[in-house]
Every structure is written in C-alpha cells, then in structure tokens.
C-alpha cells in the first residue's frame, strides 16, 4: 500500500535526534534560504549543510530523488519566465525572436538555489522524522491533541482517498465516462467522479466521530503517551544556537536592506 | 468564543482530515483530467460552509502544512494563509447558501480575488515569481509585456483564481444539494444549508 | 444492582415522527452475555447507542424514561465518561480506526492515552490485549494494512483495553468475509468464557448465538417482543426471526412427518444430531 509519508527508517544519528531539533533545523533552513542574498550562498547552504546532514542520516540518495522532481519544474519555469522575458536586460543567448537576458538568468539561478534549500529542508525533515513522533513532541510542548489528531489522521487518510479516487475513475470509465477528449468533455467528466468521492467519504464521518468518542477522545483529563521520545542533553543547546544564528542573520539582512 | 466552541464538535474534527484528503484527491483528479483549474480547496470550502469560518481556516492551514511536512508538496507552507482565507470566506458567505445562492457564488469570485491578492506576493518574493506548474506560462506572458514580477504573479492570479474558486463554490453547492437532510442537520452550521 | 437498568425508554431521533425505541425496559446483570436479534429497523443499533451514551448525547433527539448503565445515569453523563465504562464496536472496521496512530500497538493504546493511564501500565495492558486478540505479531503494522477481520479484532482490542464493564457490539461481522467472521466469533467465545465483561451482541448469526449466549432479546419496532434463554427463543414459532437452520430443518422434518410431533426443537448442531437420531 502506498504511503503518504516519505519517512525512511534508518539507524542513524539524524534519526535519533529529537523531532523538535529536526523541526528547528528545517525552519532555520527555510528562514535562512529566504534571507540569504546573491547567487552562491544557497547552493553552498545545500552542499555544506543539508547534504552532510542527509549523509549523517544515510538518506542522501532518497533526498536527491525526492528533491529532483519538485525542483526541476521550478528551474524550468524560472529560466523560461525570468530568463527569456526579463524586461530590458542584456541578451546573452538568442534563439530566433527570443533571447536569454543576463539579469534574468542570474535572478533565475539565485532563485533556483533558494528553492533548492526550501524544498530540501522540508524533505530532510520528512525523510528522517516520523510524523507521529513530531506531533508527539509538539503536543508534549502544548500543541492541542485535537490539532495533532487532525494532522495525523489527514496523513493517514489521504492515501486511502487517492486509492478511492482511482477506483471511482476506473468504475466510471468502464461505464463509458470519457476522461479524454476536448476540454468540455473532460470538464463534464468531473462531477460524476467528484460526487461519489465526496458523498461516500462524508457519510463515513459520523461513524468515525462515534469511534473516536468511544475511545475517550473528548476527555479533559491529562493525557499520557505510549511513544517515548529521547533527547540528547546537548540538543536543547543546539536548538537555541540555531535559532539565535538565524535571528542574527535575519537582523543583519534587515539592517543591510534598510541602509 | 462560544460560537467557535460550538463549531468544533467531534464531527467537525473528524470531517477536517477527510476534507484535507478530498482536497488532495480532487486536486489530483483535476490534473488527471488536464483541466485548467486547481479545485484543491473543495474540502476547505465544504468545512467552512458546514462548520463555520474558523473550522474552514484550520482546514486550509493544516492542508498546506500537511503537504509540507509529508514532503509531497514541500513548498505549500508558504501559501497556508491563502488556504486559511479561503476557508474563512466560505464560512462567511455560507449564510447566503440557501436563500440567495447567487451571493454564495459571488462569494466564490470574491474568494478568488482575495486569494490572488494574497498569494501573488508569496510567489513573487519567495519563489521568484513561479510555482513550477503550467500556470507559470501566464506569468511569462505578463513578463513579456514588461510587467514587474509582482505585477505578473498578480495578473496570473487574477486570471486563474476567481474562475477556480467560482467553480469550487459551484461544485460544493451541487454536492451539498445531493446530501441527505438528516445528515446535514448533524453539522454545527446546518442552518446555512437546510 | 444490575449493570444495565432501562425503564420505560422511549426515544426518537431528531425530526422523526416514529420513535426508534418504545417503552422499552431491560435489565442486564453483571457479566451476562446478552444477544439482541430482530429485523432491520427494529431499534437494535439505537439500543446499542443508548447503552454507550451516543443516544442522546451524540444524536440528540428526545429521550424519556430512565437509563442506568454501569452506575451512570445515561442522560446526565458526558460521553467522555461513559467511554471508560462502556465499549462500543460496530460493523464497519475501517471507520473504527481512529487514524491518529501509526501502528496497531499505538492504536490499541490510544484510549488509555486519552484516559491518562501511566505508561508502564499502558504498555502492560496493551500487550495483554494484543495477545488476547491474537494481534501480537501484527503490533508494528499500520492499522490500515490489516484485513477486515484483523481490523475488527483491533477495534475490539482497542475498547477492551479500557476495561469497560460492558462491551456492546453492533453487528460486528456484517461487513466481514467468512474467514473474518470466524475470527471474531472465536474471539467473542473466548471473551465470554473469561466472563470478566458483560457483553451485548447484536447479530444475525443465530447458530452461534444458540450455542454461546446466556440470553436472547428479540426487538421489533422498538419494543421487546421476547426475552429469554436461547433455546426458548430460537425454537419459538411466534417470532419474526426464522430460527437457526437446525431448527428450520427439524421443523420441516416434523411437518413432513419425518420426526415426532412432540418435544423440543433443536437449536444447536449437537441437539440437531440427537433430534434426527431419534427420528
């Protein structure tokens, strides 16, 4: 059965980190990627920060395999949209009536680097952290158990729905519904597919709510947890340091921009 | 406060993950049918309508966070506030659903325009003006006319979003009409739809 | 004091003209294995929901009469409190998986987490329940990766682990294949033999009921039509239920003059063998 999570179990130092430490790494990576200026820094950040972390977690290949299909459409769009259509700009390569502009290509390269880090940071988290462990860490820090339920249930229900959508599509196609052809014909196929999917799933909601209540979900007592999260004594320090460094970076960037 | 508490029943809590799954599954169905729409907020609009604006907001926000955390669509977090606004608008316009449906559909257009205004700065300033989808073609057209990056992403949004949200609100309208009354009565905002 | 005391219960779902339960009174002592049979729409599910508090707290509607279950006044007790004393299992195994936990073991422990049970005790109780329901080998699997019968055993384990004083099962095998049905009834037989929990089971599996139940309650149109030991009820001629296939066969044999016209009709396989040997 397909799974909605990318989690790759490994016996590694990265995997053993407390989920909050990994979440902090990701969030700091995202913030840094957005504020880092210029052409190279984000590529360096990816090569010298994210890749070594992935190597530590024995997930370099899965990371690259996961990053690539999301990254390349961005790269393609950036180079076509910003490279070819940069208003004004100095032409460097001319293809018939169009030409790549130097400013556009530089911008596209810089942005592609940023997006690489943005995507990579989140994928590193998803590859090395079980979502339930992450939610467990967050509820232990005060996140509502109801929000945690919503997130975890969504993660588990989505693949079931994708399967359901495929079944319904196959069933309707076998009854002669056309999902090919011109735009109008394809648009007309939408409601017969969508209706059964949404109706059948909404009708289940009532029973699912009863099942949840029958397990004491509505109780206001203090909750306990079966999952036990371990934390190295130095992890708190690392998190504080990461947050501090990111804050300094953002501050420096703001000051520079204001000048 | 009281109203919010009433909106978040166990039924609402259970419906939210189902709505998120609907968002994903319908979004993929649309890609399969190669339609020039997203329709990836049908579940969010449904929750907004049946359980109020705050439940809608939570559905939208978590929808995008789940995409990011699971790595399926890691860039989605940046648009979480747009997804939240869609849920809020669906909740606010829900009161017109039964008696003045044309205002509900107008709400779809208003949601689309607001979504376009809010998402344009994200694509412009965080992702360099692109989203890595076919919609970038429209951004390119605007850029070719000499528009700035933010103008181009805004232009793209105004071209795509109102139509998409209008169709979303229309589909939700049709689906809810198909639901049995006994079932609709179970939801905290059943007064919107019965 | 009885575990369940229902007095003159009448209940209607919101905005319905006909009550689902009519002037129903029922007492179930501690540890009894009570089964409920009847045609569709007789009020069996409504009775289950009432015992677990979902009627009236989830479905609302209008309830009159008094309902005492496991020491709680049902009308006054919040669902969250009822859940600790009454476990509810229903037909669809998939809808009973909470989705909040990623492994079978954690799914079983979910109810205990909500009750705030200390971790050490939670672990012990969870392992015990996994062993009882035969799920120990599947403890690390995703609940969604189980078969229907396994999922239904998981649903039973997940409520039993909370040590309810009453376990209510509403047609727990109606959506399972024959193998899954076998699994559930084998587990139920084990539970009933342990005798620690009172069980109310709604089912159409009359042969099995005839062999294992202490008592059969026949519901019809929201009322109790008959109530007694399985033998008396299942062999009766007056009820809107056909009886077990053994009873039906014996009845047919009698009608054809192949068996003596006097004496009790068989309910179980063993009785049927004796009956036909006589004939």
**Tertiary shape of chain A:** flat
- Give the domain tally of chain A: 2
Poorly predicted parts of chain B? none
Q: Structural class, judged by helices and strands of chain A?
A: mainly alpha
Largest sheet of chain A: 2 strands, antiparallel
Quick one: how many beta strands of chain A? 2
Multimeric organization: heterotrimer
**CATH top-level class of chain B:** Mainly Alpha
Q: What portion of residues of chain A is helical?
A: over 70%
Mean model confidence by pLDDT of chain A: 91
Largest interface: A-B, 77 and 64 residues
The sequence of SSEs of chain B as H and E is: HHHHHHHHH
What secondary-structure arrangement, pairings included, does this model have?
The complex is a heterotrimer of chains A (259), B (194) and C (279).
Chain A: H1 13-16, H2 19-35, H3 41-56, H4 60-85, E1 91-95, E2 98-101, H5 102-128, H6 131-140, H7 145-174, H8 183-188, H9 190-214, H10 235-258
Helix pairs in contact in A: 2-5, 2-10, 3-5, 4-5, 6-7, 7-9
Chain B: H1 2-7, H2 10-32, H3 42-51, H4 53-70, H5 80-93, H6 101-125, H7 136-144, H8 149-177, H9 181-184
Chain C: E1 4-12, E2 21-28, E3 33-37, H1 44-52, H2 54-57, E4 62-69, E5 72-73, H3 79-85, E6 86-89, H4 104-115, H5 119-132, H6 148-160, E7 166-170, H7 178-194, E8 198-202, H8 206-212, E9 215-220, E10 223-228, H9 230-234, H10 245-255, H11 269-278
Parallel strand pairs in C: 3-8, 3-9, 6-7, 7-8
Antiparallel strand pairs in C: 1-2, 1-4, 4-5, 9-10
Helix pairs in contact in C: 4-5, 4-6, 5-6, 6-7
